[in-house]
Amino acid sequence: MSNSETAAFRRLQARLATIWRAVESQKPFEHTSLVVPSLSFDPEELAKITGVPFYEERLLFSLMRLRDPHARCLYVTSQPVHPEIVDYYLQLLVGVPSRHAKSRLELLCTYDASPRPLTEKILERPRLVERIRRFLGDPAQAYLTCFNATELERRLALTLNIPLNGVDPDLLWLGTKSGSRKVFAAAGVDHPPGFEDVSDERQLVAALAALAQRQPGIRKAVIKLDESFAGAGNALFRYPDPLPDDDGPRKTAIHAALADLAFSADETSDAFLRKLRVMGGIVEAFVEAREVRSPSVQMRISPAGDVELVSTHDQVLGGATGQSYAGCRFPADPSYRRLIQDAAMKIGQVLRDHGVISRFAVDFLTLRDRPTDPWRVQAIEINLRMGGTTPPFLALQFLTGGRIDPQSGELRTERGIPKFYYATDSLRSPAYRGLLPEDFIDILARYRVCFLPTTETGVLFHMIGALSEYGKVGVTCIGDSREEADELLRRTTAVLDRETGGGAPATISGMFELGHVQME
């Protein structure tokens, strides 16, 4: 990007603080949110996710911003969103007539199902860009929201002359696996022993050998691609046993063992090592203990530079190596919740000092060997973007008007009631395939599978469009306790199984295995 474009983008971003203050004030402020839910990631990594085209529906929860009568929303997708799906979200706007909300909503699409970032498709279509510009109106009262921010999203912001509610792409290196380790070190937060900026096979072998020297008896290490996500770019390496003592034979044995890397997603060792040469990566010790959890903390750095806690979650991981994101529970376990909040705050302060403005999340491991031991906390990675934990929490906030207590980490409604949920993008069964949005909405209405404003509990769905082709849907189950949230999921899957002939009701255990329903 040229110096003039850099200067123009910085001027745009300075405008975001003014809009932010106006939107969050109690005074009426006419404004427009442009939502572009583009997954601007490496196409090969995206291809590992079943039903990825429908992940653009995940941010439809942002339509709840329309409960503010002064808010307008423009939502752009690659393919049209079924009208029944739009109505499903608008009916959640209690007290706002559907007609009034629809008058302030515009849905546009590129009619392009190619496996490329949505933002790229928009930029290729000048007439579509012009229609977007007309709906936005005064650019001083509009902003752009994206799932993740890259040079494509920056270019779109400049084209439309509106600020980007996301991280400056020049700072994205801070959220790579290598950049995360450097931020953890600067923040003084513990993280697994390892090495960053590994860019080829020779450096990889040297790093694995050095890690074995540093930790005699080590059995496993994790190799992570710098720009991967959701565990799809992780490889599990098992050290040869016995490992030679001499440096030359040790490296030869390690090199040979690279042919047997294990992956959570469909991948081969050769393809993985090719990607490592392109994007670089890290090597870390595989952290082991008798009890290991995988919590995360969502944070936000405001345009004013305030570092704020958003939420904590316990992540549910699965896949062949146990490193793929499958779902989450809110909030994280209270026995270590404050520990991870404090660590995330230190990390957020380092990111703020680098100039980061946006939502982000930090993934941790918490470990102990005995129930009476104190938890040990290790930071794993930073995601400078929205993630799987973002949409369900935003939905909970919008629906209940609740606020997070930064001390306890609980979200309490306006009535003072703490809320809990289980959320996943991947409730899946072959029996669910063929369900059209109309069919699915009919089932929900017949069995009253819904969110109840009177109790502020119930079930929300997203990615409904993925059901017919992939038999997959996202779900958030909100209760007044963790047990109630789990029970809502049991009842919901039982209804879906019964209506689709899927067999016995699903059950929950350990890593969230739902009978024949697969979590991926």
Keywords:
globular; 16 helices; 520 residues; Rossmann fold; 24% strand; ten-stranded antiparallel beta sheet
**How many DSSP helices?**
16
Average pLDDT taken over every residue: 90
Strand segment tally? 21
Whole-number count of domains: 3
Strand composition percent: 15-25%
The name CATH uses for the topology of the largest domain is D-amino Acid Aminotransferase, Chain A, domain 1
Shape annotation: globular
Q: Which structural class do you get from the secondary structure elements?
A: alpha+beta
By CATH, the superfamily of the largest domain comes out as ATP-grasp fold, B domain
| Share of helical residues | 25-40%
Tell me the Rg in angstroms: 23 Å
Under CATH at level 1, the class of the largest domain stands as: Alpha Beta
The N- and C-terminal alpha carbons lie at a distance of 38 Å
The second-level CATH architecture of the largest domain is 2-Layer Sandwich
Given as residue ranges, the uncertain stretches (5+ residues, pLDDT < 50) are 504-520
Biggest pleated-sheet summary: 10 strands, antiparallel
